[in-house]
Amino acid sequence: MSDHRQIILAGQPNCGKSTLFNEVAGYRSVASNFPGATVEYTRGHVNICGQTFDIVDLPGIYSLTSFDPAAQETQRYLLNEKVDVIINVMDASTLSRSLELTLQLMDLEIPMVICLNMMDEARRKGIHIDLERLSQILGVPVFPTVAARGKGVQNLFHEVMRFAEKPFKPGHLIGNRDVEAVITELISYLKSHIRLQEPVSFHLLATKLLEGDPYFEALIRNSGGGVQKKIQSCRAQLEQTHGTTADAIINGERHMLSMTLFETVARVIKPVVQLKDRIDQVIMHPLWGYVFLFLVMFAFFQVVFTFGSYLETGLLDLFDRWTGFILQTLTRDGFFRILLKSVLEGLGGGLGIVLPFLLPFLIGLAVLEDIGYLPRVAFLSDTFMHRIGLHGAAVIPAILGYGCNVPAVMATRILESPRDRFIAAFIATLVPCAARMTIIFGLVGAYFGGMAAFGIYLLNIMVIAVTGTVLSRLLPEDTPGMLLEIPAYHVPRFKVIVSKTWMRIREFIVIAWPLLIAGSVVLTLIEHFHWMQAVNHGLAWVTRLLGLPEAVGTTLIFGVLRKELSMLMLFQALGTRQLTDVMSLGQILVFTVFVVFYVPCVGTIGVLGRQIKARRTLVVILATFFMALILGLIARGISELLSI
Amino acid sequence: MPLKNAGSTLTELARIRPGEQVVIHQIEGGWHMRQRLNQMGMHVGDRIRVVQTGAFRGPMLVEVNGSRLALGCGMARKVKVFVENSEGPSVV
User: In which band, very low, low, confident or very high, does the pLDDT at A216 lie, cut at 50, 70 and 90?
Assistant: First the structure.
């Protein structure tokens, strides 16, 4: 923490908060079209007229009552950290809804300015906003911007700095008289009866207690029965006069205030109807939507694979030459040379085998995401994801998994229930990542042809479906169901794509890659001290069960450390690149099936441990191992029946 | 069973076809469900338009106060709406 003053960007998902952040603080945050995708908050510095401010981009929230972990983090941050100024970023094109959050942020009693973003989109929708009037009624400065094009951003921060010199706290808007009376009554009771550990504004506390928000209820848990009774009686009073639940009354009140405010400050004329308003009728159509999805996915993987193999050859050649050169010039012989070689091989594996496919994959995904296609994919897959006990949004981590399982497991944070996150993370580890893709194509693709490789992918999807179904039966819970904002389409922005790709690649580089290099060293040690025999011997029961040569045992360990290595080491362990000399086609098939499904790599295990904790990670490791064993046995049975 | 009421029909949101406009009458389900729908911009009394319905009891795409939401079928069944008839004013 520095002693600079702290500016917070807070707003609803998809309001352009992260775009604004990127505009002023560089490539450090990611703008997302998928609600809640910026899970870890991002921090940066902004320099205004020689003064440095800390600027923090928090995950989007719809309200100060939150459900998913990302939004809960934001809420906690806003309530507990020392914040100097809040910039409430709003999507001007959804002004009436965004105002509901603004009213709650004002309740925090922290100095605040409003950044009315996406003014161009609002104008297109025919919404004309009287900024001065809005500012006057709310008692908060309002500045218009189009962050995606950098418009108004400089002015905003200049004004923020001026405002930071002599800030003032926003007040509250007054709503329905009888509702206000109850709130005031509760506030004065709370003021005299409770002492809070954390500084929370009493207006916010009172309304949230009336709403029944568990976070705020926890704050006053130790305040005795009298307080609870008072809250109950206030709720009852509201419910009696309005004939509905207290939470609906408070929410309805906020909604009514926002709508009235919207009607006062905005003039809506006939919108300009564009193609992008109609496009959803095709792209989300119950039939054409799926046809389009299939075409997009097909083209996507085609491009990733073509581009990836091109990069792979180039990078591997280059790297091999460099490794040879380094090894020759640096060391002569001995143990150090072997160690250095293993580190270089680990580096090379990441650089030459995983990155060439991961990079185009993540770029492509970021493009689809920034256009706004991913929430539509979630919409289309909801039906199928429901069959396996999850909802549509859980398809996003699964898709990411085809690139690398590490960001995939991390992306499960967008889901609300811990149970959904566990199932989605489990499924994500089963998805064949770029490294496993090289195995599928290098073995089954090479010896059986492209269609067979495609078949492995189909088998994989079937296994995922069965696993999901079984898991959701084992962990029955009424999942909250899908409720997802479908943002307007955007023209993809270069800055956003670069920073998003970088964020995800960074997860691979800092978490998975070091573990892969460490793995490479361990393997070299095993080799150097001739432990191969012992490993093969220990794993003999697996290899024998699957009908594979015993020498294959070590490659399975290699595969846990680095997935793509199990194939390369297979060549080494068997002493030939001509696999058919030493293995039958059936054995190659069994090997591939086993390697695709068994135990996630160390990098993935690392993030699993963080996301779903050690015990459940162990469950995933054991379960995937036995699933792979069973599938391997089935593959063996089939190939023996067909005698291949 | 659809209920007749003063020129409008009370039914589940899940039954509404693309292109139709309805007014939310009631949100069933617990605190959690109400909160989630409310903060995404769906409240009792709001006018919404169904843009698209999914295949095989899939989710619906609705438009409410200028934003578009995807809503799972289970949730859409718990939202009771009035279909506005052309001849009479709505109840809400």
Answer: very high
Distance CA A506, CA A152 (A): 31
Specify whether the CB–CB gap between B68 and A35 falls below 8 A: no
**Highest averaged pLDDT of the listed ranges A198-202, A562-566, B3-7:** A198-202
What mean pLDDT do residues A418-439 have?
90
Q: Is A149 helix (H, G, I), strand (E, B) or coil?
A: helix
Hey, what CATH class is B3-84 in?
A: mainly beta
Partners of residue A6 on adjacent β-strands: A54
Domain boundaries, chain B: 3-84
Comparing CB atoms, the residue among B31, B37, B43 nearest residue A483 is B37
Q: Tell me which CATH code domain A177-268 carries.
A: 1.10.287.1770
**Per 3-state DSSP, what percentage of chain A is helix, strand, and coil (rounded to 5)?**
70, 5, 25
For residues A543 and A387, the model is more confident at A543
Which residue in the set A95, A287, A483 is minimally distant from B69, CB to CB?
Answer: A483
Q: Which residues contact A509 (CB under 8 A, 6 or more apart)?
A: A350
Q: At what angle do helices A288-330 and A373-387 cross, to 10 degrees?
A: 100
- The answer to whether residue A1 scores a pLDDT higher than 60 is no
DSSP state of A151: B
Residue A504 vs residues A236, A283, A398, A512: alpha-carbon distances, Å: 50, 27, 15, 11
Locate the DSSP E strands across A81-141. 85-91, 112-117, 127-129
- Locate A191 and state its tokens: 């003021």
Average pLDDT (A165-177) is 80
Task: Round to whole Å and give the CA distance between B4 and B10.
Answer: 7
Selecting from B31, B33, B67 the residue whose C-beta is nearest the C-beta of A94 gives B67
Q: Given an 8 Å threshold on Cβ–Cβ distance, is A485 in contact with B32?
A: no
- Residues ≥6 apart with Cβ < 8 Å to A534: none
Three-class secondary structure assignment of A405-432 = HHHHHHHHHHCCCHHHHHHHHHHHHHCC
Q: Which CATH number fits domain A5-165: 3.40.50.300, 3.30.420.100, 1.10.287.110, 2.60.40.3140?
A: 3.40.50.300
Strands B60-64 and A483-485: unpaired
CA A639/CA A254 separation, integer angstroms: 66
Domain ranges across chain A = 5-165, 177-268, 288-641
pLDDT band at B89, cuts 50/70/90? very low
Non-local CB neighbours of A23 within 8 Å, separated by 6+ positions = A147, A150, A153
A324 inside 8 A of chain B by CB? no
ipTM, two decimals:
0.86
Q: Is A201 exposed, middle or buried (0-12, 13-18, 19+ CB in 10 A)?
A: middle
User: Rounded to whole angstroms, how far apart are CA atoms A92 and A97?
Assistant: 10
pLDDT recorded at residue B86: 46
Check CB contact of A361 with chain B, cutoff 8 Å: no
* Rounded Cα distance, A54 and A91, in Å: 23
3-state class of A57 per DSSP?
strand
